[in-house]
Amino acid sequence: MSEFKLMKGNEAMAEAAILAGCDAYFGYPITPQSEVLEYLAREMPKHNRIVMQAESEVASINMVYGAAGAGFRAMTSSSSPGISLMQEGISYIAGAELPCLIVNVNRAGPGLGTIQPGQGDYFQSTKGGGHGDYKMIVLAPASVQEMADFVFLGFDLADKYRNPVLMLSDGAIGQMMEKVQFKPYTRPETDKSSWATTGKPRTRNRNYITSLHILPEKMEIHNLKLEEKFKKIRENEVRLEEMNTADAEYLFVAYGLSARICQKAMDIAREKGIRIGLLRPITLYPYPYRRLLELAGQVKMMLSVELNSGQMVEDVRLAVEGKVPVEFYGRMGGMMPTPEEIVHHLETLIQYHHAN
Amino acid sequence: MPTDQHVLPETDLIIPACHKEEEEEYEVVYHKPATLVDANMHYCPGCAHSLVHKLIMEVVEELNIQDKTVGVAPVGCSVFAYDYMDIDMQEAAHGRACAVATGIKRLMPDKYVFTYQGDGDLAAIGIAETLHAINRGENILIVFMNNAVYGMTSGQMAPTTLAGMHTTTSPDGRDVSFYGAPIKVAELMANLPGSFYVTRQAVNSANAVRKTRKALMNAFKYQQLHKGTCLVEIIGNCPSNWKMTPVEAVKFIDEEMVKTFPLGDIKVPNTEDLKIF
Amino acid sequence: MNSINDCRKPEELIVAGFGGQGVLSLGMTLAYAGMVENKEISWMPSYGPEMRGGTANCIVIISDNKISSPILSQFDSAIVLNQPSMDKFAPRIKPGGLLLYESGNIFKPSIRTDIDIIGIPATTEALKMKNTRTMNMIMLGAYLQLKPVVQNDSILEALAKVLPEKYHHLLPINRQALELGETLARQLKEPVS
């Protein structure tokens, strides 16, 4: 096994990109993830890879489009306002079915917001973000180790489904340091020769990358094909982590940084005798609806804890089909709830539901 | 494979029948380049696009670089360029062709990469991507089709619309005190150190077509030098949106367009750089 | 994930002061030393405008078990290097915890009686060493004397990793600073009843 390193989440993600065989990174500086571009500007040339500071996030994502369309492993990263600028490009990438990795180190918004961590981009990430019918596979790391691991996983999933993959992190996971280990990685074989624009030899038809299907009949066929793909993704790629759910009477549902804070809250609550578990969705799309429905038959209440005004809670409610009360607790604007604060809120809710 | 997708439905055009036996009796003096797809183009009669498509494909055929060429289509009338050019192509979002081409060329520096963009695509929504690609000296060719009007959305004012020119969004003529003067893209971009060869041509006469073909040929060849961006601006005829007959449109270029957009080379490589040819 | 009940107690520390006082590198050195000893660690900085001379802080957690929240509101220990940090974090130390402060910068230490409060004149001592930037290492040395969460050797190994190579000529003076801090803490520590 390789040795442990102490790294920021952003740096671990950047190093993982190199190890995952990322051919090209295009980015634009924005706090709290400028380390990624800085790290890669230093390291990528040593590996004969392409790294470029683009003139905008709009240009970055379209450079990714070009490189991915030519069959290369390409990625970009940014933070919320920059990711908003990329939405047009992401929609085109999804429409043209190009595999690539996009990382959002989420900060609090709306607008310019603040540079502190947030989870306000949940809807944007999981429900489409740009125009048209499409979905990205969304991976939510909760540690520096996962920021690295999900780069490998993200690229592989992108290639497997010819679909953009979004890693939805946040400012805290990006900026914090933990130890990280880069495991040996074998890249799955993928054949892109049937679509990548590498120059047309006489022996094959021309390849072209487009998201344009001007005839409604053909557009619908394309939409149906995409939907078929998203169905496969929903069936095969749900990932989650459960803690203390075996005997749980109550359940925290939280992802990323919120899940880490909830772990501590869970420990405190369990010391007080509250049997609470934690379900951490690792994939935010596809979402673990099925498992949440199962747990709805077991627990008395679910509490979704988020760094926003209540976004993922809608998916939790959708999952449990009204079988169990679903509550929400969140902080915004770059503020983070303390574990004690969450436990206090949990206790209040338990009392309320007990009384009713 | 995508070849059969997106091809426009058969129209009612009558294609004259050819008899093979007859053909054999004649000497072939002209043939369509094999790099051009045998499809009916959707362009209007008298439009410059079909002609310029053909010229680019002739150059690709003559240089024998079909397997080394990747094109980038814009959003605009030529959005379907990939239906007609028998090469690998990518269709970019509106204005982003130069960013897409950057992504392609940086990963495949030995390929010939070109964008094909109209005035709205390049000079309005995509001016930032274009300027920065040229400033970086991306070794790509930008074919800039300037017809002073938005074609696909049928005749709105473009950044290159002539002063006083009537469009659907400047019904009283372009008021330069309100909208500014038309952008002279070639002159603007020639100022950037990253540009290597900048020229403005037209295709409204046999002579102009020959010059444009020569410019495109040079620009493709220059990519081998890795010396910077080539920009070939082509004044395109747009009789439909200029509300003219094709013949009137041809005249309009000579009589009006060239006053704002004079034809000719704006930046040429020095002979030292061209020694290898 | 184990519940907190079956872990050995982790150390939850906040380091706070002005940007430029070496707050983040103090925490990072400690975190690195934890990693050298195969412990679980997290280092969570405040980031942003603070980096440009405002207040800076980082939370360091060192544990034998996997760490849950990297963000905390209550701490076992605090190392504070300026008055605003003293005012902000002294109330957030758990009863029985340790509050270590730089006494040259802080004139109004906390009046809590349920925690250990120790002032170290690290700036004065650093001036004597003719290198004010060793102030943070004097504080770290003092902290480790009072809370030996990692071994000395690990800290020295960590220093070599945290300091960029071009500053490796400064390793000896940092080492001296650490030792000085330990000595000062030994001399100053008086049990608070």
The CATH topology label of chain B is Rossmann fold
User: Which two chains touch over the largest interface?
Assistant: A-B, 47 and 40 residues
What order do the SSEs of chain B take from the amino end to the carboxyl end, as H and E?
A: HHEHEHEHHEEEHHEHEHHE
Give me the Rg of chain B, rounded. 19 Å
The general outline of chain C is: globular
Helix content range of the residues of chain B, please? 25-40%
Low-confidence stretches of chain B: 1-5
Q: The CATH topology of chain C, please?
A: Pyruvate-ferredoxin Oxidoreductase, domain 3
Can you describe this structure?
The complex is a heterotrimer of chains A (356), B (277) and C (193). Chain A has helices spanning 9-19, 34-43, 57-69, 80-95, 122-126, 144-161, 171-175, 216-236, 256-271, 289-296, 312-320, 339-355; strands spanning 4-8, 24-27, 50-53, 74-78, 100-106, 137-139, 164-170, 177-181, 208-209, 240-243, 250-253, 276-281, 283-285, 301-306, 326-330. With 356 residues, chain A is of the alpha/beta class. Chain A folds into two domains: 4-200 and 222-236, Thiamin diphosphate (ThDP)-binding fold, Pyr/PP domains (Rossmann fold, 3-Layer(aba) Sandwich), CATH 3.40.50; 242-355, 3-Layer(aba) Sandwich (Rossmann fold), CATH 3.40.50. Chain A has a seven-stranded mixed beta sheet with strand order 3-2-4-5-7-6-13, with helices on both faces. The N and C termini of chain A lie far apart (54 Å). By secondary structure, chain B is an alpha/beta fold. Chain B is 35% helix and 16% strand. In chain B, strands 2-1-3-4-8-7-9 form a seven-stranded mixed beta sheet, with helices on both faces. In chain B, helix 2 (48-63) crosses helix 9 (206-222). The longest helix of chain B has 17 residues, at 206-222. Chain C is α/β, with parallel strands linked by helices. Chain C is built from six helices and six strands. In chain C, strand 4, helix 2 and strand 5 (93-102) form a beta-alpha-beta unit. In chain C, helix 1 crosses helix 4, helix 1 (23-36) packs across helix 5 and helix 3 packs across helix 4. Chain A binds chain B through residues 23-24, 26, 50, 52, 54-56, 58-60, 62-70, 72, 74, 88-89, 92, 96, 194-195, 197-202, 204-215, 218, and chain B through 1-3, 5-6, 9, 66-70, 72-73, 79-80, 82, 85-93, 96, 99-108, 111, 128-129, 132.
